[in-house]
Amino acid sequence: GADLDTGGGPAGAHPAGHGVSVADLRGPAEPAPGGQVRRYTFTARQTTVEVAGRTVEAWGYNGQVPGPPITAAEGDLIEVTLRNADIGRGVTLHWHGYDVPAGEDGAPGVTQDAVPPGGEYVYRFRADQVGTYWYHTHSASDVGVRMGLYGTLVVAPPAAGLDLTLPVHTFGETTVAGGPGAHDAAPGTPVRLRLVNTDSVPHRFVLSGTAYRLVAVDGADLNGPGELREVELRLPAGGRYDLAFAMPSGPVALFVDGEPGLRLGVGEPPPAPDGWPELDITRYGTPADTAFGPESRFDRSFTLVLDRGIAMVDGVPRYAHTVNGRAYPNVPTQLVREGDLVETTVANRGLETHPWHLHGHRVLVLERNGHRVTGSPLWMDTFDVRPGEVWRVAFRADNPGEWMNHCHNLAHAAQGMALHLRYD
Ligand code: C2O
Ligand code: CU
C-alpha cells in the first residue's frame, strides 16, 4: 500500500535548501553551558505485556511498554542510541512535537533509513523546549506504535510535589492510562498530570473531585489559564495536556472515556461524572500578543482538504485517505523558504476526525471554523479537525529540512493522508 516509509525515495538524499541534504542536518554534540548529557540505549524488540490480566504480544524499546521515560532539564543534550533486535518492519525514533534538526527526526524514507534488525542509529538533540512530549517509531508506525514502540519525553525543572506522566494507550479493547492506578497525596500537595495520547483516536478525560487548570497544550504553556471544574477535555491523537491543581482534602479521580483511571488520595472515589460539557480550548486562557496572528501577511498559504475517496495508490485506483484528492506519496510537496511566515488551512470533508500533525514546527492556531482564537495563544503540533471543520494555523519556517505532515490517525496516514514539506 501507500506505505509511509517508501514514498520518499532514498533517505537523506533530499536537498534541504542551501544545497544541504537532510541527513546532514544533525543535532549538536554538546549540551548548552551548564547542561548535562543524558545518554540512553534503546533496543527495540518483541516482548509481551500484561493488560487487564491478559498477556498480549507487544513490541517495546528495551522490551518495555511504554519505553523508558526520557526526562531532562532545559539545555541538556539527549543522546539515544537506537538498536533493533528483531523488529522486521524496521524501527526509528521520532520525537513527537520536538522541533529537532531534520536529521534527528526519525522519518524513514525522508530523514534516514529505518533501522533494520541488527542495525543502529544515534540521535542527538538539545532539550530546548520545556514541556511534555513523546517519542515513537515512525517505521510502519501504524503497526509499530500500536504494538508499543513509544514512550514519553518530559523536559522540566525538578518538580515540587507530585508530577505524573500518563501515556494513554489502547491494547486491543483495553485503554490504559499509564502508571500505577492509585497514589497517596497529602492535602495541599501540588499535582501535575501530564496526559499523553499515544493512540490514533481522541480520548475524553474528566477530572473529578477538584478544580484544576489546563496549564499546557502540546508542551506549550497556556497564558493565564483559568480554573476548570466539571468539564470534559478531549485530547487529540498524539496530543498532550498538562493539568495542575493543589490536592484537596478528598479523593480525586481521572476518568478516561468514562472509565476510572488514576486515583489520588484516600476515601471513596468520586462517581463517574456524566454529561460534562467539553472545554473549547480555542476560548480558554487569556489572550496575549504573538509575533504573528490572523491578520499578518503570509509569505505562503496552503489549503489542505482531507477526505476519503478513490485515488491512485501504487499506480492503481483504490480507496484511500486523501489530501486534496490525492494519496501519499502523490500529494504535492509544500515548498517553503527559511524565514517564511506560512499559513495553512485544513478542511475536513470526510466523516472521521483527522488529527493533523506537523513535524519540525509547532503551529499557532488562528481560527477554528471561521472564529478566531479568543483565549490564550494556542500552539499545537497535532490538532483535531473534526468532520466539517476548518482550521487555520500558521508557523514561521525556521527549521530547514524535509518534513512529514500527516494525519495522526496512523492508519489514515498509512492509507495516504500525508505529505512532505520541504525548504527550497
Ligand atoms: Cu507522532 Cu509523524 O508523528
Ligand atoms: Cu485521519
TrEMBL record:
The keyword Membrane applies. Keywords: Membrane, Metal-binding, Oxidoreductase, Transmembrane, Transmembrane helix. Residues 45-158, 318-422 form the Plastocyanin-like domain. This is Multicopper oxidase family protein. The chain holds residues 181 to 604 of 616 of the full protein.
